[in-house]
Amino acid sequence: MLTHRHELTSILRNVVHDLRTPLGNIEICAYLLQRKLGAMDEEVREYIEAIQRQVAAADQILQDATNATQGNRTQTAEAVSFSLTNAATAGVT
Known about the structure:
Blueprint: H1 2-37, H2 42-68, H3 73-89
């Protein structure tokens, strides 16, 4: 049982690491676009901000999943569920 949990924890950490790299790249690109465009069209600004919000929401989900490998599984399952709900409602308005 402990070996199985250790394997799952290891896989989860690898997945989180692998997902954070492209998320970081997306975040940097959105920031650079924002700087490059300067006084941009309102609609373009909203899209860039939506990208930044979604990256932050995805990063929070990954953090909650990482935390699920530590501590109380019930509390962390609730935190992951909360993060997923927030990510779903943080879309483009």
